[in-house]
Amino acid sequence: MAKAKDKYKVPVLDGKISIPKIVPGASAYEHMIEAQKDDMEALGFPFKLQDGWKEKALGVFKEILDHNKAVRDYMDICVRCGACADKCQFFLGTADPNNMPVQRQELMRKVYRYYFTPSGFFKSLSNAQELTEEVLKEWYTYFWQCSECRRCSLYCPYGIDTAEITMAARQIMDSIGLGQKYTTEVIHKVFKTGNNIGIPPAALRNTLDDLEEEIEEEGGKGVKIPMDVEGAEVLLVPPSADFFAMPHMESLKGYAKVFHKAGISYTVSSYASEAGNFGKFIGSYQNTKEINKRIWDEARRLKVKRVIIGECGHAWRAAYMYSNTMNGPFDFLDSKYKQPTHICDFTLGLVKDGVIKLDPSANDDKVVTFHDSCNVARGSRIGDVVGGQFTIPRELIKASANRFVELREGTTKESTFCCGAGGGLLTEEVMNVRLAGSMPRMQTVKEAVDNHGVNFYALICAICKTQFTKVFPLYGLDADMIGGIHQLVSNAIVM
Amino acid sequence: MEPLNLTTAIYLLFTYTVGLIFAIGVVLRIYQYSVTPQPIKIMLTPAPLTKGGAFARVLGEVFFFKSLFKSNKATWIFGYLFHISFFLLIFMHFLRHFIYSNPLPWWYNIFVGIGIVCGIVMVISLFLLLMRRVVIERVKFISLFQDYLILILLMLIGLAGLSLNYVLTSSALTVVDNQLDPYMNGLLTFQFTNIPSNPIFLIHYTLVMLLILYIPFSKVMHFVGIFFSPTRNMADNPIEERYYRPNAKDLSI
Fold this sequence. Notes:
The structure holds two protein chains of two kinds.
Chain A: H1 2-7, H2 37-42, H3 53-67, H4 69-77, H5 89-94, H6 101-116, H7 123-126, H8 133-142, H9 151-155, H10 162-175, H11 181-193, H12 201-217, E1 234-237, H13 241-244, H14 248-262, E2 266-267, H15 278-281, H16 285-301, E3 306-309, H17 313-326, E4 341-342, H18 343-352, E5 368-370, H19 374-377, H20 388-400, E6 404-405, H21 431-452, E7 456-459, H22 462-474, E8 482-484, H23 485-492
Parallel strand pairs in A: 1-2, 1-3, 3-4, 5-6, 5-7, 7-8
Helix pairs in contact in A: 3-10, 6-10, 14-23, 16-17, 18-20, 20-23, 21-22
Chain B: H1 6-35, H2 51-64, H3 66-71, H4 73-99, H5 108-135, H6 137-142, H7 145-166, H8 170-189, H9 199-214, H10 222-225, H11 230-233
Helix pairs in contact in B: 1-9, 4-5, 5-7, 7-9
């Protein structure tokens, strides 16, 4: 680990989240690895810049302006007040001015001015710029240092959403062959195997068998994780990391125990074995829709009555916010239930109805804190009331554990910081960007550990879990304290 | 009636041209924003569950700058003072047209006094907004020519307007006032009369015309755009009510 530490720029945890003095170009050399040929082609994109790329790019840009109100509106109305500038964890962490949301947008806005507004006449004065390979390089660097967490939009007087602009920029770049390896590879895997990790059905079944054994050894007798069972009541769609990665698997055990104790038949699917939706990260409507469609096709095929989504941030946003528009409506499912349902909502409902019992003293060795994941906090809702995405996970934690503390005020709920790896940044080559982006959140975590003795960091997002598991040791914190809410449930559930 | 002079002819042409460009420009923008489909729901949550609630949320932004308040108190205060005083001044300029009669109402001086206070507040808040852009490193970095331009233009308008009250003698100001009313009436009724020839007034008037001319091409269009911002004006009900725009194209989300 010491070696890895030397390799990376690990921010100092002094408890302060201060606005840095700007350092132009500070993260200009942090690049994503470019996409591979077969991945790009599988997603319907060309590979590498072809002749006429500029015309193509501008054509797609125009199409987006004409067919996306948010981008159209947001290109025009920014007044550069700077309210967003100090709100982005990537600016706070890297000090690179192009990571200020307003400046990130400016990368696209200057091209917009040149081609789509009359101020193109006063080019140098108004900062209008031609789309050159140089500009494209800048786009590729900085639109891949945004995690699409929308913290900036919260603080913008007009609600300008940098994520929408980042997505549009990535869409334009993809359409001319300039893709990012990690996301395109992952989406290609979903099309081939049904999940981000690329686990084929037989291997998935093996893993589930192993997990069943583990649960049995831990005292959960007879708990099953069924796969591809037609006629089950519930289709459970967790992020595929829940099948393979740690600490994600602990939450999967939790889901299984909940279903078992509640006596509700359920199944996971090998075809729709992924709740995550990386199509969203690259801003591609078509790919997002295709990935999302697998869930609803499978719900039809398996004749389930309801669909439940596991602990995953952007997956929940895609399922909750996009599904009905893209592939809905859910009229083939049981209208008695919310479709889809978030696993926390489902479990908490069972607890409240007395169907399952949780013994919070089982987690008495833990002091728990909770990190609101950006896509859940700012991009969706859980349950029936406004802000349910904040109250439901907390209620479930408090039902499972006696000791709970909040992270620093102003960094929770809708003001939460991103883990630093959302939006397709969860890849090795930009580790320094991820570390910088995690800095504000880590300051508050360190504070909670030091002041309150926090030793369990509860998450409901597969990306958050992976990111923190990776960066905690680099900061000198114990990665074992990271886990899902259903890991707490798994400990506390009375079997 | 005295014949129209050349200055008036030029200003009449200028005023109508500016008015036309402004009206067409703003209407086109409104049209463009309304017909462009929003492919998918993107409201920033927690969001109101109903359309009415979402509209109230937008009004909260329009009238109180709620998000900016959350973000930065100093910017909020300067920005809010500027917008309030600016709108009061626009309103009072129109109002004056109905109040300015013979004899003047007894409270006319109080009315003008309020206007002067607004003018001073406006110029000072603009100056503070300008200082922000010069002094704060990150704000300086993001500021463009057009950001300074609009602040300076507005400040000059305010200073010229205040000068009418402070530089002119009261009799000279009365001359301007007496000529202005029929001129403005003429713009609407096409019964043209001469524009006040006082140079300070003409500077004020010209700068205002330049501002109006510039608005459709500038960031000032945020006063239209804010109503169309999908992160603020959409209701959080994607499951309850299917949101679907067939003309959005399967392009970008």
